[in-house]
Amino acid sequence: MITFRFVQSLLAAALLGASALGAAPVRIIFDTDMGNDVDDALALGLLHALQSRGQCELLAVTITKRDENAGPFVDAVNTFYGRPSIPVGYIGGTAEAGPSNYLAEVAAHFPHQLKRSSDAMPALPLLRKILARQPDGSVVLAQVGYFSNFAALLDTEPDEFSPLNGRELVRRKVRLLAVMAGCFQESADLHHFREFNVTQDIPAAQKLARTWPAPMVWSGYEIGIALPFPAASITQDFNYTPHHPLKEAYYAYRPPPHERPTWDLTAALYAVLPDRGFFDLSEPGTVTVEGDGFTRFTPKAGGRDRFLKLTAEEKIRTREALVELSSQPPAR
According to DSSP H, which parts of 81-136 are helical? Predict the structure, then answer.
């Protein structure tokens, strides 16, 4: 019997292209403030779909939100997609005010092994361990939360995993950092806009923007706003199973007909498929983070940084890709 989901998956494969085009899967680490918004959860589902298509390998998930329920939720999502062994790293430290409105509630309904975030391996040694094992120039990082983990990674000392310090380890192993942060195309509504991921740890954002030794592509606030996640997808496309962690997280966070911006999904999509025409890129330049958290882009020939841009045609195709990937059933 040919089902609707089967036909939908064929259409999505045509949209995104076959995975067996000879390219090796992208080795990716996903760094997230899981729990502050629901786009982090959808982005994690998108990465699992891309791994099922053979287009990436999710090496680890590291967390920058200090919430004891963030790790169990990530573990529950990984387990739902059939990958419970993906390592999870946690930043630790004092808990944040205002706990998530979906992490604990949703994780409780799905199998997982991690009982508390603090039971996970600390993020910095996990990052060093994972990076040290990868071929040079092979790792892509997707940062969709605070800058805390990756900025601190630069200051790490040689250890049992690598004789390199953090900066040299990043320089040798990382070929791209795709980061959801900042705002680079101002409008009347976005004048001198200070984006959340930056303002939550301004010193870390300033440090990373100033000293990161590998290429960076920024997905600004304006990109996710331009690509709202369709409410109809949330109500219909996840119904292949009676309970889905992404759908339940979305409803717990803010139910349809609200259409949440796809901020974190855009960075994850670009990190894995940068050459598939989903986005345009700015000219090269340099991003600086000012004292109030404002991100300023200065064009510069040969600069390390670029930011994502969208044409009207790209909006249609990219939104469809985000929906198809994040709602794709787990590979069984």
Answer: 103-107, 123-132
> Is the model's pLDDT at 117 over the cut of 90?
yes
Residue 12 carries which side chain, given as an amino acid letter?
Answer: A
Q: What does the pLDDT average to over 209-223?
A: 98
Q: Where are the beta strands (DSSP E) in the chain?
A: 26-32, 56-63, 88-90, 121-122, 139-143, 174-180, 216-219, 280-281, 285-289, 295-299, 305-309
What number is the average pLDDT over the span 17-32?
79
β-pair type (88-90, 56-63): parallel
DSSP string, 289-307: E-TTS-EEEEE-TT-SEEE
Residue 332 has pLDDT above 80, yes or no: no
Which residues are paired to 216 by β-bridges?
177, 305
Distance, CA of 248 to CA of 36 (rounded, Å) = 15
Residue 305 β-bridge partners: 216, 285
Q: Is the pTM of this model over 0.90?
A: yes
**3-state SS, residue 26:** strand
Quick check: 1 pLDDT over 60?
no
* CA 249 – CA 89 distance, rounded (Å): 21
Closest CA to 314 of 283, 282, 279, 281: 279
Q: 3: burial class by Cβ within 10 Å (0-12, 13-18, 19+)?
A: exposed
